[in-house]
Design goal:
Structural class: alpha/beta
Order of helices and strands: EHEEEHEEEH
Largest sheet: 4 strands, mixed
Strand order of the largest sheet: 1-2-4-3
Distance between the termini: 25 Å
Radius of gyration: 16 Å
Number of helices: 3
Helix content: 25-40%
Strand content: 15-25%
Length: 165
Amino acid sequence: MKMIFGNPPSFGKVLRAVFTVLLKELDLEDAKMDVVVAFEPLMPSELGAQTEGKYEGDPLDSVTIALNPNIAGESIIRALCHEMVHVKQIYRDGLRRIGKVGDGQERKHPTMFKGKRYSRKDAWSESDEPWELEAYSLEGPLWEKCMARLETLGFAEKRKGLLHA
């Protein structure tokens, strides 16, 4: 698996180090797909990030993670941790939206996850969806490992302004 930065940020070294940790921790080092990380300045402010897969046949060719560049410091690393769990779910657990991608109604489409079909009526809110529960439960421990790795690389003194390193 390789990471491709769309509109590469000035803090690319930090994100590459984080990405290396996440690949190892999520057992994705040998995955045969690309992860494109794009910084979307027009993303609604309430969203830190979102992930979408691009299907050019089977298996999945690439996954795009759109990060909101307006979220600050360590929060963008936490968002990347959360979204990389979704990448793992897409690659290993069959996380897929069923329906036409790009129709603006993706959140309403049924979803496949670990061989089970979920419809929007199965969950009260996004935070009740099993793939989100898993992503939220792993986000913190992954973030801790990423931050520990960054400290060993000399980024500890820049934690507040981490993304401007």
